[in-house]
Amino acid sequence: MGEVKKFPYAEEVKLPPEMEGWEEMYPPHRLFSKDREDWEKRHFWYQDKIHDPEALYPLDDIFNEAWQISLSQYNTRVFCIPPAQGVQQRMLGCYMYISAVEPPPQEIIKEKAEIFGKRLPYVLQNYNMLWDKWIEKFKALGKEMQNLKIPEELVKYVPDEDIFPVIKGYTQAYEVISTFNTLVNQVFLAWQYHFEYLNLAYLAYLTFVDTARKLFPGIKESTVMGMVAGIDAAMFRPEQELCRLSRLAIAQPSVRDILKKNISAEEKIKELKSIEAGRAWLDEIEKIKDPWFYVSCGSGWFYHEGSWVTKMDVPFSYIKGYIERLEKGETIERSLDEITKKREKVVEEYKKLIKVEDDRKSFEDAYNAVRTIYQFTENHIFWVENWLHTIWFEKVRKFGNLLVKSNTLKKTDDIFLFNRFEVPILLEDMVSSWAVGVNAPPRSKYWMEKAEKREKILNAAREWVPIPGLGIPPKEVSEPFTVMLWGITSEKVEEWLKGADLSAKEIKGFASSAGVAEGPARVIKFSKDIVEVKPGEILVCPSTNPSWAPVFTQIKAAVTDIGGLTCHASIVSREYGLPSVTGTGVATSMIKTGDILKVDGTSGVVTIIKRAEA
Amino acid sequence: MARKWIYWLNEVGQEHNDIVGKKCANLGELTKAGFHVPPGYALSVEAYNRFMNETDATKHILKYLENFKADPNDLADTLKYEKASQDIREIVESIKMPSDMEGTVRSYYENLCKIAGRKDIYVATRSAGPASHPGQYETYLNVSGADDVVFNVIRVWSSTFNARSLIARARLNLPLHYDPIGVAVLTMVDSKAAGVMFTLNPVNGDVSKVAIEGSFGFGEAVVSGNVTPDTYLVDKVTMIIEEKVISDKGSEFVYNPKTKEMEYIELPSDKKKVQCLEDREVIELAKLAKMVEEHFGCPQDVEWAISKSLPFPENIFLVQARPETVWGKKRGESVLGKKTGLEMLFEKALTPTKIR
Questions:
Q1: Which tens digits make up the pLDDT trace of A211-221?
Q2: Minimal C-alpha gap between B349 and chain A (Å)
Q3: Which domain holds residue B264?
Q4: Three-state DSSP class for A91?
């Protein structure tokens, strides 16, 4: 093995001077520090490119804070996966680094094993009932969040109905402060629920991969994944609604013609409203909008991504694409039954290859366990990252509006430049100045300058390329997410250590969906640009998002920087039979739009055949 | 009435193993099961017996052996065996087949020509022992014309007296003068490419894969290890070609009509590293491999050849199938240790994943 190579420690990383002051954007416990130096240096940290590929806006960090607690506690305190501890986070230069905490002492592992032994079987045996309870409480939580009232503006005088016949006793000043706290609490609660069965599902998946590998040593992980997660279940229903709306439009030539125009969604809606059939069609959207259009245009993790309901251009462009395909006589719907049957057939055939009766039983058992609980990973994403986050962003923006109206901030979205502990200060400043009387100023200048400075720091951070790892890579990992979701393997770490050769013609990644395709590249760095993709192109992006599913009917292949075999791009590519190579780390920096690529999803290699004309 | 000693391939099956030898029995089984096997016929071990006993062959051999003494475990005596082999083979090959046998062998050959619609077609005369001795006996390719067929059948019989076989029998204390085998007379496939496939990955025993090795020309090149073949790994369920190694195949094994010999001809440099099979042929072969395995009920080692002159998929022929022996023996042992899903989950939860 020789000497163990290491990455620099956090303190050794040099940041560009334009980023000075970045630390104040994030709460102190989220930073690397002298006082925890020994502990921090004992661990290997890697940049979480899956969730935070971009420089992180302080308020968007709330989801990370919430998942650090939630993911970790299900390993350590709830289901007690014996040697697994949590995943800890630190911010460095506006990017988030994470690390699986080293295993606990032996006696703790023993204690945990006993608890784990009681709790795991219970979940597997009762999963269906548990899921029903989960979805019920989750929907209730979202509804509560939707019902939070945030005023358009602070009233000049409290209205009469708050006085007569019984005095209400508190005002908007208290309501604003309290509602924001409630909103934050609700997001934390949603994220507590987010991991309820996720850790066990990942563990069951990893067990099944091991089982399949013991029986079929050369089986591709993408094949195993195909047996477990055949479909992009989280997005199934929203997509179905788009298909239904497209079919309705086709039946009404006047509606269809408007939807096919090359104008903005806003203009289309205006034109539709002017005709009877158009109004009827828009009513159909209204009926299903909540929840099925509460779909993030990105991953759901960043305020700037927007959702279908706030960026109607996105679903409208999908609908236009579907209409055009329907006119060509193509089928646009995916048959869930067919996909499920296909998956079952694959599993059956592998089972038939196992000639030892006992082994077949064990395989079946491991498969049933993973299929039972894996549904959770397929279903929670829509409800948490899409539906509930859409509501969260909508509510936060109402506070942003209020801060703009009170002259505390310049723009609504500037609220995202303040972390969740700072926003209450801004709000208190605002309501204090309202309470103390006419013309009493909040510290507008201070907040506005801060916002401006932070925007500059984040711009500088976007220019800076964060290093992938910090410290010494570990020998082994027992934390299921680290292995499965982030795909931390020796090869990956080795590649990071080598650094990427940006002039190379070949890029390696996970062979996540088999097949070979050639075509021009379309590099999409920001999710808002997804509408630029043209039929026949190869999509190259940092990672794909659930709401992009309709794009997969247009493209020839997909290549991503981030993500393993379980990432969205892999699942959807397999479903549509497109080759895909994921987790290349460097595709978006090496490939330019227009380059001619060969994507070999069987071997995991992307070749740049011809560079685009400059 | 004499016992039957010659059969069309579709008249025999696995149950005829001891009568016609393994190769013929398996080929017959494949033929009967509807696989695309080149037409052919089998001379049973009874034919060998008749030849050896109805002619002077056995008598002459026994006489020769009276004065032969050698120690099969002494390396220095190898030369003695080689000399004996040469002498005995000369004896055997100088003897004529009983005339009724010769007439039958000829008429079966003429029938093969009729099936092919051509005169003097090329056939292979291959040995078929009731027990498997891979590579021990000899095979003659591109035999054409009834005279040559008759002669080469005798040559295959006489190959039971090659030095290897003599030493092998001596070591086992078996009679040296007698080792009945069957002979297969098979229509040659004018192969553009040929090779071997296993219904599992021979590297790791993965039964969900078909491993195909192939090269240009006749399959002997691959079987003998004289060229580095292309290798393909196909998943049996998804039918995806998961691995493909295109090698520098160097030369191809072909028939030289001038010298009437098989020979290795160096491939043109632009062809050496060209994939020897089309992808659709690879997938078709994998499908056939699966079907053969299903038919025989255990992992198989299958030889195949692809004809130059026929269209896909009729161009694909199976020329041999036998049980795979290395991994096949391990079957029946549990690899998961009778564990339940829950037990495996526990085990996984307790075992960290090595990453360095």
A1: 999 999 989 87
A2: 6
A3: 191-330
A4: strand
